[in-house]
Design a protein that fits this description.
By secondary structure, the chain is of the alpha+beta class. The chain folds into two domains: 128 residues; 263 residues, no CATH class. It has 15 helices and 15 strands. Strands 1, 2, 3, 4, 5, 6 and 7 form a seven-stranded mixed beta sheet that branches. Strand 3 and strand 4 form a beta hairpin. Helix 8 crosses helix 13. The radius of gyration is 25 Å and the shape is globular.
């Protein structure tokens, strides 16, 4: 195992410390590792400090250094690292590393992006095998362990009654509103919108083409979007049609969240995540901040990445001017000034009840700003607790008795037809026992 640390800021590795935006942590990292490290516990930090590090600059046209992390601290949306080089190992020209990039799991274009990846490769052995590191060169030996998900201390439920008891037993605070979300596999899924999801090797599936996905669906189904006033309205509709967006569904009905925690991955423990936030922080479909974040969907990824969040001249940047143009298409009197931090927020939005599915699921959304990462443990503004869910088949039967099923959660005739067909399908176990001659 080793850490690959890349930055575009030349000279950054000369100071002994550096700060990464959390959104850049675990990019180009295999999903099994990223999932285990989604909650950065003390034991995970010690593991990361035990792995050797390759410190590099974007472009790959300079030298790389080898060393170790001495400290990792979470600072809001950032990770502050401190480090020391191994001075027994001289700087290595990246041109020597490039031919074995595949062996080190350094992927195409990876050296063109500031990020922190964790690689499941033996850095020193690879370098020795290729003659880049002398065979007799002594290197720091620390016991390294593959990161493993922490054991959960969350309450576990196996029946609807127990779940309702846990929900009602949660402490509620005046002035706060509560929402829920169900995950069918508590180890696999993170609190991130579908747009930010990655493949098993840690590569973004959709993020780089967000502006294309948005336009292509509008082009091919323009009639469906004619009534939408705001870009947020269109994103909500696209989410409804399962297009990857920067929206994450949440619900005000805990039983709906429980249904989603049980409806798939029957043999894996699911979970219901409980969000508690100040009512005054919840936005509505016509919010100016929501318009700023939603219209990021229309900017090409290259323009989003070029945005500098310095307060000086922020609104004079070409990508921000283009973003303001998009916002003014839906809000002609919007002032030509965006607060930089607004673009990087995660906000709760109540959209229009524009279709039966949103209504039936008591739906709302978390809208993710530019490179926003949800803290899995919650923040001071958005408190998070979790309930583990097991015995899914029995819970689904109990939910059905409460009229929570595929037909009511997804209220379309094809879903209702499938639900009715499955419910009344022939089964020998359902046939009444009769005596011969009856």
């Amino acid at each position: 195992m080793y850490n690959l640390l890349v930055t575009a800021q030349y000279g950054a590795w000369d100071g002994g410390f550096y700060e990464y935006d959390k959104s850049r942590f675990l990019e180009y990292t295999n999903e099994s590792i990223a999932s285990a490290l989604k909650e950065l516990s003390d034991s995970h930090i010690e593991n990361l400090k035990s792995y050797p590090c390759l410190f590099a600059y974007e472009g790959g046209d300079s030298e790389v250094r080898i060393g170790y992390l001495t400290s990792i601290k979470e600072r809001g949306r950032s990770l502050l690292i401190e480090f020391k080089f191994d001075h027994d190992i001289k700087p290595i020209p990246f041109i020597k590393i490039f031919p074995i990039a595949t062996l080190l799991d350094i992927r195409g274009w990876e050296m063109n992006r500031t990020h922190w990846a964790v690689k499941d490769e033996d850095l020193f052995q690879r370098l020795r095998d290729q003659g880049i590191l002398e065979l007799d060169k002594q290197t720091k030996v620390i016991k390294q362990e593959f990161p493993i998900s922490e054991k959960s201390s969350n309450p576990k439920v196996t029946k609807v009654q127990g779940f309702i008891g846990k929900v009602l037993g949660l402490e509620q605070t005046d002035g706060y509103e509560v929402f829920y979300r169900g995950h069918s596999n508590k180890k696999k899924y993170k609190l991130e919108p579908s747009l930010f999801r990655k493949d098993e090797e840690g590569n973004y599936l959709y993020k780089d083409n967000e502006h294309i996905l948005y336009r292509e669906l509008l082009v091919s189904n323009s009639a469906d979007f004619q009534s939408d006033v705001y870009t947020l309205d269109s994103l909500v509709r696209m989410q409804h049609y399962s297009l990857p967006t920067r929206l994450l569904d949440i619900t005000s009905n805990p039983l709906i969240a429980l249904y989603f925690a049980c409806k798939s991955s029957i043999n894996d423990d699911g979970e219901v995540i409980v969000f508690s936030m100040k009512r005054r922080d919840i936005k509505y479909f016509d919010s100016d901040v929501a318009s700023c974040i939603a219209n990021l969907a229309r900017l090409p990824q290259s323009e989003k990445e070029s945005i500098s969040f310095s307060d000086i001249g922020f609104n004079e940047q070409a990508p921000i001017k283009r973003l303001l143009h998009f916002i003014r298409e839906e809000k002609p009197f919007f002032e030509a000034s965006i607060v930089p931090d607004d673009l990087r927020k995660i906000i709760c939005v109540k959209g229009k009840q524009s279709n039966d599915r949103i209504s039936s699921q008591s739906g709302a959304f978390l809208l993710f700003g530019l490179d926003a990462v949800f803290d899995e443990e919650g923040t001071s503004e958005l408190k998070v607790s979790r309930i583990t869910v097991a015995n899914k088949e029995e819970i689904l039967k109990e939910l059905d008795l409460l009229n929570i099923n595929e037909s009511t959660v997804f209220p379309y005739i094809e879903n209702s037809a499938r639900y009715v067909a499955d419910k009344f399908k022939f089964s020998k176990s359902m046939q009444p026992f009769t005596k011969s001659g009856d």
